[in-house]
Please model this.
Amino acid sequence: MTNPVLIGIPDLMLSTRVNSAARALQIPTIATFTPHDLLAKAHGEEAQILLIDLEAEQLHPLDSIKQIRDDDHTKNITIVGFKRDVSAEDSKSAMNAGCSLVMTESSFISSLDDLLQGRIKGKLQA
Model:
């Protein structure tokens, strides 16, 4: 069985799109809605990928990413963060927090199948 993908995307339309793509690829997903929920599920599941909306303030994304990286059990999870618009400063902050890849939302959507399957390209896609 394929390891689940953690989804930190509170936006209903976008999370539905991610879940539909994952279902088509037969990849299980686990939704997270709070920082505690995100950290608990990252620690308790065998997820290898976290897809997180860097604009989802309720998830405290940069702090949550740092905590995931600081935990020996979760530090190797591939973390893909995205925002509608990504500046060089945004990218640097997210990468310093521990993102494996930072993307614009449009690049995230167009690369969704590859991301869900763990095919991560580069460090920044704009």
